[in-house]
Design brief:
The protein has eight helices and five strands, in the order H-H-H-H-H-E-E-H-E-H-E-H-E. By secondary structure, the chain is an alpha+beta fold. It has three domains: about 100 residues, no CATH class; about 30 residues, no CATH class; about 120 residues, 2-Layer Sandwich (60s Ribosomal Protein L30, Chain: A). It has a five-stranded mixed sheet.
């Protein structure tokens, strides 16, 4: 309010001394337009403009600040030119705010951020922010020799029980076996060379059996699965590096007749 009174004082005083009454009226009209645009932008900000049209709102607000600065410096003509630019920048701002709240497919994602406005999002923890129906990519693939898993299984280091993060991978393995009833597998468990061979064999045995039990719980017939603890006898990388030891600790699902 104080700033508005300052603008009035500067504008009114200069026009009263140097210009006729018609120019004073024009100056008052200019100030009214500034105040009207200021109120419009404040309303847009309160109505989620910063979320729905942040760049357009910020550009119009910065522009209006420059108008006020020019007016305070006594350059009414420059202020008028800038104000016209600000008004153009603010055109359509309210429509964008209203559209931002629209949700045609009622999936909880507004149309302004929804890439599929007529198809609801499939909430499955995979790209849930894009507003489109989708399926989680499979974490396992059936090949001629094995079921290749694309993410390693994780085990508790003490009990060798499968960790919860392994459940999606096992679910995909179980799905492949369900879709291919003639496929039988051997569950091979491997370790790196950092463990005593006898202990490594025991750990692998528990891990392989735990994987078999988990797949059985998912509906896979136990008769279609065998287990084979391998210990550290069959590395696929050098155990001299952390990466090599990591890839050597693995579960493989090998196809068998």
């Amino acid at each position: 309010m104080k700033r508005a009174r300052t603008l009035w004082a500067l504008l009114g005083a200069s026009l009263f001394v140097t210009t006729p009454r018609s120019a004073l009226a024009e100056g008052q009209d200019l100030l009214h337009e500034i105040q009207a645009l200021d109120a419009y932008l404040n309303k847009a900000h309160m109505a989620a403009g910063a979320r729905c049209a942040p760049e357009a709102l910020a550009a119009a607000q910065i522009c209006l600040s420059r108008v006020k600065e020019e007016l305070e410096e006594g350059d009414r003509w420059e202020a008028e030119d800038l104000l016209a630019t600000c008004q153009r920048l603010s055109q359509g701002l309210w429509d964008r705010i209203l559209l931002c709240g629209q949700d045609t497919d009622e999936d909880g994602i507004p149309d302004s951020r929804d890439q599929c406005t007529n198809q609801p999002e499939t909430y499955n923890s995979y790209r849930d922010e894009d507003g489109c129906p989708d399926r989680v990519p499979s974490r396992a693939l059936l090949t001629p020799d094995k079921i290749e898993i694309l993410e390693p299984l994780a085990f508790d280091e003490g009990t060798q029980a499968l960790l919860r993060e392994s459940e999606p991978v096992l679910a995909d393995v179980a799905r492949i076996l369900s879709e291919n009833p003639s496929v039988r597998i051997r569950i091979e468990a491997h370790l790196d060379g950092s463990t005593d061979p006898e202990a490594a064999f025991a750990i692998c045995s528990r891990r392989a059996e735990n994987v078999k039990d988990a797949l059985s719980a998912l509906g896979v017939d136990a008769a279609r699965m065998e287990t084979a603890p391998k210990g550290s006898a069959e590395p696929i990388a050098s155990n001299d590096s952390p990466w090599g030891r990591k890839v050597n600790r693995r579960i493989e699902f090998v196809r068998i007749p």
